[in-house]
Amino acid sequence: xxxxxxxxxxxxxxxxxxxxxxxxxxxxxxxxxxxxxxxxxxxxxxxxxxxxxxxxxxxxxxxxxxxxxxxxxxxxxxxxxxxxxxxxxxxxxxxxxxxxxxxxxxxxxxxxxxxxxxxxxxxxxxxxxxxxxxxxxxxxxxxxxxxxxxxxxxxxxxxxxxxxxxxxxxxxxxxxxxxxxxxxxxxxxxxxxxxxxxxxxxxxxxxxxxxxxxxxxxxxxxxxxxxxxxxxxxxxxxxxxxxxxxxxxxxxxxxxxxxxxxxxxxxxxxxxxxxxxxxxxxxxxxxxxxxxxxxxxxxxxxxxxxxxxxxx
Amino acid sequence: xxxxxxxxxxxxxxxxxxxxxxxxxxxxxxxxxxxxxxxxxxxxxxxxxxxxxxxxxxxxxxxxxxxxxxxxxxxxxxxxxxxxxxxxxxxxxxxxxxxxxxxxxxxxxxxxxxxxxxxxxxxxxxxxxxxxxxxxxxxxxxxxxxxxxxxxxxxxxxxxxxxxxxxxxxxxxxxxxxxxxxxxxxxxxxxxxxxxxxxxxxxxxxxxxxxxxxxxxxxxxxxxxxxxxxxxxxxxxxxxxxxxxxxxxxxxxxxxxxxxxxxxxxxxxxxxxxxxxxxxxxxxxxxxxxxxxxxxx
Lengths: 312, 297
Known about the structure:
Chain A is mostly helical and 312 residues long. Chain A has helices at 2-57, 60-65, 73-104, 108-129, 131-150, 159-176, 190-223, 225-233, 238-275, 282-306. In chain B, helix 1 (2-54) runs parallel beside helix 7 (181-214). Chain B starts with a helix and ends in a 6-residue tail after the last helix. Chains A and B meet through helix 1, helix 7, helix 9 and helix 10 of A and helix 1, helix 3, helix 7 and helix 9 of B.
């Protein structure tokens, strides 16, 4: 009995010794393998995200061409709300100015001022009533020019904006060795790939965000367009009215500038594909594509900033 | 006696377990460190491979600085011609309307003077728009020749300072990575930015110049009329600034090389001068754009 106990005890101690030794030897490797699998999953997620963004980018022309649909009841509702609020205000203003003109205007200067204001208010009320149609006309004008410009783009122009991300993604995939089993990849090699994945993702995501930002800014400015007209028609509030009207025009026309930049980048890089007066390395093409994306990102802001102050 | 023996064996067993456990823990820590060091080395190797690939672009630096949009290329000439084609009827219409106004409608003296001033301006502007290709080619040729002459003045190859800085930075990257991977990442991103930065700016200049080349006739058209002159002025000024930006880049590089040779800078000081020229190339367009504005009437 005692002998048995000693044998069992010895086996247990041996097992314990072996386990601790094994844990010591392989614990770190197992931990690293678990980490590697986790990073592999994260990298795969990034890859899927980047591929999704590349798919979105294939429709970049549609994204550039898109303007807020003013016939949709929600946007129209906001515009109508503003129109309904502003029309009585205009009418009140017209009546007060009329009363002033008929009964109270003493000095010729005051009379001239009131006459001007009277005319401006009638004009503003007319414009406010038809403001959705003015905006629709303006959007279709901008849309037509943009569409016309985009027809000059070389074939598959979108690739000049997605190739950098694809290049970085492939570089990251090469580093990770994504085709093999994550447990078999060299330890920790996934980590250096992370900055490339992040850079690749950000380049696409930020550009798409800015393209969509224009759409939303135009939507906001379109909703308050009647208010912008009203503010512009009074001398006292002309500053803010001018700013709002100018920004409406500039953010709408930013799509023309973006289309122009889009075809410029495509033509600029496609020329390097064709001419090859020098031995252009892939890295120069990479630099050009990054530059192209940067220009496209900044275009709406540059347009909105540079061409201000054109309204009287 | 037997009890004593069992106690002794148990004590030895516990001591053995404790010692193996602690040695196993030590072994584990060693292994972790070995793994960490192993993949830091792999990271260093990978990044050396990436940077050596990127450094290949230094061979094209001179050509890239000198590069201007090829006006003869069919993609550019087609669009430029179509823009001129759109503008010419507009010019003719504007000239006709101004003429009719002058002959039949000009009531006030002020209006008559404005129309009289506008008419020759329209004719000159139409003439200039027709000569867009020639004017742009002339501008590009002047800028190209000046830049080429400046680049020839460099006492050493213009890429030498760039490749030296990158190589030196890679040594720093190696040391940083061996200390901590995060530091290595930061250093690598810095090297990546510093190496690619000037090329991205050169590419930016080239693409912006292509853009302003394509809309050059529109810039002249807008510059003709009083009400659209501010927009036209901005566009024309930008065309000129971005055309001659290559002269600025060449000057920066050559002056740095001259400075290094004249002052006999070596070691770290030379590398610092190199990093400064990298940064200057990146920020010089912003400086030029802020400093040189509204020089056209």
